[in-house]
Amino acid sequence: MSRRLADLTEELTLAQLKTLLKVKEEMLGLEDRRAKAAAELKRIDDRLAVLRGSIGGTAKPKARGRPRKAATIRTRAVTKSTGRSTVAGVVAEVIRAKGRAMTFQEIRAAIADGALIKTKSKNFDNVLRRTLSTSEDLKRIARGVYGVKGVTGLPPVSGKTVKAKTTKKAAAKKTAKKKTVKKKVMSKTKKKVTASVTAPKKKAAKKKAAKKKTAKKKVTKKTAAKTPRAAAKKTAKKAQTVESVVVDLLRKEKGTMSFQEILKRITTGKLIKTKSKNFANVLRRTLSTSTKVSRPSRGVYALKG
């Protein structure tokens, strides 16, 4: 017995040693079963290979337990950076071999017929479309037609070339643009013509309106000249102030008047038009600052001189 085992027997209890023994026995049994199962699987694979060979098949039995390799491409197109083939490289080589540009369906059929690409993608058409639209080496010659540098000839379509269709579309676009330009020019010319026609009419209407205004002013001046008294009264009314109204009241009374009497006469007779909300304050300020009115006693006012 080695020293290590002696140490373990001293450190572990009897129950722990029993459990270790059980674990060891179970592990040995499982390893034996695994070896037998591996041998059985090998016999099954060998038998399957024999059966496939008897019916003309050439497929080899798959190696179990090995990781599958990623999708590879069987072609001579190789990238400079990784040294591996790419979908874009395969497409470029197919187009060069064809000698002209190819449609998406032609490229897809050539790849499928030649089994040029091995992939795990469930929808390889999307992968191919993405490659055709993003690759810098490939060029989109027309709708659904792709080529490479130096190989841009268009494929024939029902006796006509794709180029003819594209030129027709371009011609249709040009004609549409010309029509829109003509419409814009016509609309501008119409606007100019209408402006040139309506401008003199507007000027004539303005002149008539100005003449009418001048005529009205002349009529009002004449009427004012015929009635000088009415005009004088209007000017007098317009020129009336709070001070002048107070002076007229004091002259009529020929004596003194109290503040309340003056305020009552003005408000009841509506002698002054005012927007003030507190006319009493306006009247007080006028009486205190007037040079024509004096105050003989408190709250009583009279004319000076």
Description:
The protein is mostly helical and 305 residues long. It is built from ten helices and eight strands. Among the domains are: 52 residues; 71 residues, Arc Repressor Mutant, subunit A; 66 residues, Arc Repressor Mutant, subunit A (Orthogonal Bundle). The strands form three sheets. Strands 1-3-2 form a three-stranded antiparallel sheet. Strands 6-8-7 form a three-stranded antiparallel sheet. The termini are far apart.
Which helices and strands occur, and which strands form pairs?
Layout: H1 3-11, H2 14-54, H3 87-98, E1 102-103, H4 104-114, H5 124-134, E2 138-142, E3 145-148, E4 156-157, E5 160-161, H6 162-226, H7 228-239, H8 242-253, E6 257-258, H9 259-269, H10 279-289, E7 293-297, E8 300-303
Antiparallel strand pairs: 1-3, 2-3, 4-5, 6-8, 7-8
CATH-defined fold name of the domain at 87-157:
Arc Repressor Mutant, subunit A
- Main sheet strand line-up: 1-3-2
Largest sheet: 3 strands, antiparallel
CATH architecture heading of the domain at 87-157: Orthogonal Bundle
How do the SSEs run, as a string of H and E?
HHHEHHEEEEHHHEHHEE
Spans of at least 5 consecutive residues whose pLDDT stays below 50 are 67-83, 159-165
Concise structural overview:
With 305 residues, the protein is mainly alpha-helical. Among the domains are: 52 residues; 71 residues, Arc Repressor Mutant, subunit A, CATH 1.10.10; 66 residues, Arc Repressor Mutant, subunit A (Orthogonal Bundle). The chain contains ten helices and eight strands.
